[in-house]
Amino acid sequence: xxxxxxxxxxxxxxxxxxxxxxxxxxxxxxxxxxxxxxxxxxxxxxxxxxxxxxxxxxxxxxxxxxxxxxxxxxxxxxxxxxxxxxxxxxxxxxxxxxxxxxxxxxxxxxxxxxxxxxxxxxxxxxxxxxxxxxxxxxxxxxxxxxxxxxxxxxxxxxxxxxxxxxxxxxxxxxxxxxxxxxxxxxxxxxxxxxxxxxxxxxxxxxxxxxxxxxxxxxxxxxxxxxxxxxxxxxxxxxxxxxxxxxxxxxxxxxxxxxxxxxxxxxxxxxxxxxxxxxxxxxxxxxxxxxxxxxxxxxxxxxxxxxxxxxxxxxxxxxxxxxxxxxxxxxxxxxxxxxxxxxxxxxxxxxxxxxxxxxxxxxxxxxxxxxxxxxxxxxxxxxxxxxxxxxxxxxxxxxxxxxxxxxxxxxxxxxxxxxxxxxxxxxxxxxxxxxxxxxxxxxxxxxxxxxxxxxxxxxxxxxxxxxxxxxxxxxxxxxxxxxxxxxxxxxxxxxxxxxx
Length: 499
Prior knowledge:
Distance between the termini: 47 Å
């Protein structure tokens, strides 16, 4: 086994401003707080720096170390969660997006995945770069689709563990394929391989201390068109027997949905349900073709949805009913869907989720107004694709605060991360990123990257308006530190000055 890099563990002691989105639409700003972790990476103190206990901690630590103090203009925010990313497709990210889904899979996805399965050195290079890029973009937890070959997926698991990222790695299960050289020999062979991968993936981290075990296996039937009923049935049983996570694609695109209807005489969701693959441990990507009533049924199973707005714009004939899913109680997080989406940063996914939802809201308003006027034909064209459920008075759009929740706390809940991740509280693992909004560069101008402020900072310090500005304009230049389970994993320099 390849020797792992070692690192020393230290308690984290940080002083500064902290931001979180604990519930949908709510933003908390904690001004000048002190946070400390224990040597396992869990927060054991979080209070105002002026609180007597905080003062005592700082006084107690003064002979050994001082708290790292983040300057005004920077803050700490929970890391992002990416609920849907095809690791081998990072190889050709940003190409081939002109094709419909089923054709794109044949001409790009399957070929790239098969190529990595045949070249371990290439796989190692791709996955190490992928891990570094995720950290650079503030992603602390990710749900990954891999390839068919067990050894290639173990390379992926090692790359994520070594980088310090929470990663859920899925070896693809597929016994049907339009590419004859890229499939498993039989349902039985696929099930044996899935079970073997799960066992070996657990063994990969078995020698690591429990709090540092960041990688887990995930059962991954690619989607209904590549999986026989026998394979799906076996995976459902295996998931139940070993309490394993499950991921797949469901009701993603028009051509895919039509294929399932023609070949299986059923809907995607019914096929997964019949084989016990919709569980509280399941994340299904996309779900753009689920109706509001189907989303309500999905909520009862506890299944989460990975919302990938950019990928949906390319490969689905309709957008995901995000507002309806949230109202129904479906756990929802965001996914980049590399390479069906070309942007690996969750910042882009947040912005796109808001844009898509606002376009849906525009369609709802136009359809409702046309319906009230009793208009037909041309007057109703703008709302012709809006269902009757969408003619109600409830808005369909989301705002930036709700998107930030989906990217952090909501994603952590949907992914089943340790309780509390996405927030700052005692007993919660410390997963965070440092965001620098501005520094004094010139008289009257304060900026970092594309985020620029011309006015003096407000007396109260960090505000929601300032966070929104970063949300709209920020990029990797604003990120100056990333921690997962209390370990500082980014290579970026830390911008710290005394207050």
